Amino acid sequence: MMGGYGSGIDASWLFWLLPVAVAVLVVxxxxxxxxxxxxxxxxxxxxxxxxxxxxxxxxxxxILDQRYAGGELGTQEYRDRLALLTGPGTQPEEPxxxxxxxxPAALSLPELKQRAVSLLIAADxxxxxxxxxxxxxxxxxxxxxxxxxxxxxxxxxxxxSESFRLQQQLDDAVPASEEQQRGWYTEIIxxxxxxxxxxxxxxxxxxxxxxxxxNAPRALELLRAGSVEAAAKVADAEQAMTGLRERYSDxxxxxxxxNIAQARxxxxxxxxxxxxxxxxxTETDPGATAVAVRAAEESLHQTNVLVDAxxxxxxxxxxxxxxxxxxVEEAAQDLAQAKATMAAGQHTDLAGPVAGAEAVLSxxxxxxxxxxxDPIAALQRMETAxxxxxxxxxxxxxxxxxxxxxxxxxxxxIMNAQARISVASDYIAARRxxxxxxARTRLAEAQxxxxxxxxxxxxxxxxxxxxxxxxxxxxxxxxxxxxxxxQDFGGMxxxxxxxxxxxxxGCGGGLGGAVLGGxxxxxxxxxxxxxxxxxxxxxxxxxxxxxxx
Length: 549
Description:
mainly alpha, 74% helix, disordered N terminus
């Protein structure tokens, strides 16, 4: 049966859809816990011996409503499931509490925002998971095998990109009318549903291609080999981190400072998932085997993302350090030229830019002498200071020098944006269970601005420079928001994660890292695989979901 993410027609869907279901359920349940508690208690109470049964039906109906409100179920699927829940011959109500429609036009603005944000996170995680899944299939079966899915992924990305653009408009300080906000939120909902549908339509054939239930022994063999290789990479990356900390400031290495610890957590869970898959394979439980294999694959993928991110940051910092030396030397030459011009009684308007550039140059030179520095941030400050000089020296420099300097500034802005986008993207990819919509929106907008800058750099270099600088600023903000979300993340302490088929309570066996990585959540495992979760709603109370959701 085709449908949106979260349909759950068999166990092999579970980990494909985990990030989507988690994000949607977190927001939907939190909102209803605040706004609908009294109504739920009234509906869930029944006198006499039937009270428990009535409460169970009420809780199931509540979850069904929440899944519909979060966009997991289409209207017809909602009605079909409601008919099964309420019994034969029951006339299905309109979706929502008490028959109230949950179509966008019937929702209040806060409810519309909640649904749009939950779908935005869900679609973003669906695209990320789909890219990873396609990568494994491509490695196994070749490029041709993933062509239809790649087309669906491209369409989903296009809808997601436009949704993030609209969300950025809604997040901007410029106020919009309620009518305009409703229009934008409604379009986000529509586009995110389309993104999910584009991927879901390819899911059945893609599952048939991979046939994890049948190919599990080979998949486990590859995972064990991948685990050994990844462990060696982690050991090498640890040495690289030591070198980075010796050369660069804490702020410079901050985005990857905990990558080694996180990579080891993912490796622990990889081992846990492989052992579970082997056990389920022995027990002839193909659905559970496929779930565990997918969990192991995602854990291996995140381990490599975390380790590779250290190499990327090292390369970017080393490149920026070399460029910084050049920028400092050229800034000193620019200042000398500007001062000579002023001494000749020309361009007295250079006084302000000269003073600003001198202050920045002096500060950067002191930092270079002190040893450990953030060369990317320092280079950005130098380039900004030189921009003021560029504008006033344009009348002094010849045309060739002006063109050279303009091209240099543009390429530096593009490289800065690319480096910052890479850092933020890798950070979120390996910690998506704890990252909310703000960081994702800024990152998507950063990429959109960079794409624009690259597309017009030959025809309109001045506008390209503006877009590139905006991309760098948005990526920096995305990284800040993502780190803040992860710091506030409530899933890493002993709040009862685990359960299900991957073991007992607590955060042993890498379960804590798997929660932060969005690979598993106790509610999903308990509900989807008959775990020991006692809370039917799963997310009510203080279980934590990720800061800012």
